[in-house]
Amino acid sequence: MAAVRGTPPQYKVQTVEELKKMISSRPVVAIVGFRNVPAGQMQKIRRDFRGKLLMRVVKNSLLERALDGLGGDYLKLKDYLGDQIAIIVADENPFRLFKMVEETKVPSPLKPNQVSPVDVVVEQGPTPIPPGPLMAELQMAGLPVAIEKGKVVVKTTTTVVKAGEVVKPEVARALERLDVRPIKIGLDVKAILDSGVVLTPDVLAIDTEKVLEDFQRAYQMALNLAVSSAYVTEETAEILIMKAFSDARNLALNAGIFAKGVMEDLIAKAHTEMLALASNLPEEALDDELKSVISGLAQVTEQVTPTAEEEVEEEKEEEEEEEEEKEEEAIEGLGALFG
User: Fold this and answer.
1) Which of 323, 29, 40 is closest to 199 using CA atoms?
2) Strand locations in the chain, DSSP E?
3) What are the tens digits of pLDDT across the range 263-312?
4) pTM score
5) Quick count: other Cβ atoms within 10 Å of Cβ 239?
6) What angle, rounded to 10 degrees, do the helices at 208-228 and 308-338 form?
7) H or E stretch including 210?
8) DSSP code, position 125
9) What are the phi and psi torsion angles at 262 (to 5°)?
């Protein structure tokens, strides 16, 4: 039976219904382009995606009809239709989905008469090409080459094609000889719809390593601030207790408080002070044992110990540096917490 004029073919109607079911089956919907992706690479992408998400290559007109049929927020995706596209639906976080799609891209050479999207630079140095007639191809591409120690080398770093220029056939051949693959080919995300919000590549392209480093730095600065201000949390409690113990111990030593934990140090300190005092007394006031000890200490001190004035100055500088570091850490911690 012939189709009624003006009525779309049944297979198109069925395809639209299948697309509507597919799109509404998952919370995250992506429109991706696949221009210039070879068939073999496309098959590999499908295999890699199997079990993780659903992908279907569609005609723009049929996808537009499906989006119109669904209505609502799905209509926002119509602005991103065009060229060769595929639809992807997934349960995945949109940022992880974007990363998965980006990982489909592989280095690829430029083709003759293709418009280069990037500047292509050939670095100075040796090439894998042996001396012979292939040198002429490199020279035709505008590369300054020569033979050095039996190897073909590029004499100076050269830009053989700039972004937006058409790639000449001789340049494409030379780059292929040098195994220069300046572009990446794979799926390109045009837009991802998640919970009614359309996310574009400029928003989705996040440097996860840098973000992690920023979080770690903010955590460390916040920890420094909490410790400096004695703010007790689960993370700072142990550090603050150790700091309090250390401060209490130093106070007991400096104030001469007889406490169980510092008695040995107090005795050692008293012994040191006794020797320092004895070294200022005349020899007739000392017995032979004390003279011997003080004489030995004097020799060692002259060799390895700075003068008292130097020690005081060094301790003063260290204290000032420590105070400055604490102030800077506290300020940085405030910045990390409150932007």
Assistant:
1) 29
2) 28-33, 54-58, 85-90, 106-108, 120-122, 125-126, 145-148, 151-154, 158-161, 183-185, 188-194, 197-199
3) 888 888 888 887 878 777 787 777 777 777 777 666 655 555 555 556 55
4) 0.60
5) 14
6) 120
7) helix 208-228
8) E
9) -125, 5
